[in-house]
Amino acid sequence: MIPTLNTLSALLTIAFGLFGFLAPSFTLGALDLAPTNSNMGLSEMRASVGGLFVVTAAAALWLGTPAAFTMLGFVYAGAALGRLVSLALDNPPFIKALTFGGIEAALAGFLILTNMSRST
């Protein structure tokens, strides 16, 4: 059951990441971000919101080890921590930030807790 959930978590991560990678303008809008006088924001979306998550999840699937899925969990833990700090300091739209952070925290918790105990 855990390998199936690992695979589903990685595929979900790839799907989320593809939005940032292939549709950065859509992602900017979904995240309440706005372009400035350059396209650097689009580049950042493709890199940090898109490519980083797509490649990390694809690597976890390719390697297929508990340690690889644990690392994917740590990536989500970093994202959830960033959301928590943002909620404390930045006053983002509360429900949206809490929802995104909750999804990230849930994936982090599952991937870390279930796979660390399986790692050698």
Describe the structure concisely for a colleague.
This protein is mainly alpha-helical. The protein has helices spanning about 1-20, 25-30, 40-65, 65-90, 95-115.
Report on the architecture of this protein.
By secondary structure, this protein is mainly alpha-helical. It has one domain (2-116). It contains five helices and no strands. It has helices spanning 2-22, 24-30, 40-63, 66-89, 94-116. Helix 3 runs antiparallel to helix 4. The two termini are 19 Å apart. The model has no long low-confidence stretch (mean pLDDT 92).
Query: Overall 3D geometry?
Result: globular
Rg over CA atoms, rounded to whole Å, is 15 Å
What is the number of E strands? 0
Mean pLDDT: 92
List the total number of helices: 5
Query: Fraction of residues in helices?
Result: over 70%
Task: Give the SSE order as H and E letters.
Answer: HHHHH
Please state the structural category: mainly alpha
Task: State the end-to-end CA separation.
Answer: 19 Å
- Into which percentage range does the β-strand content fall? under 5%
Number of domains: 1
Largest sheet: none
Show unreliable segments.
Answer: none
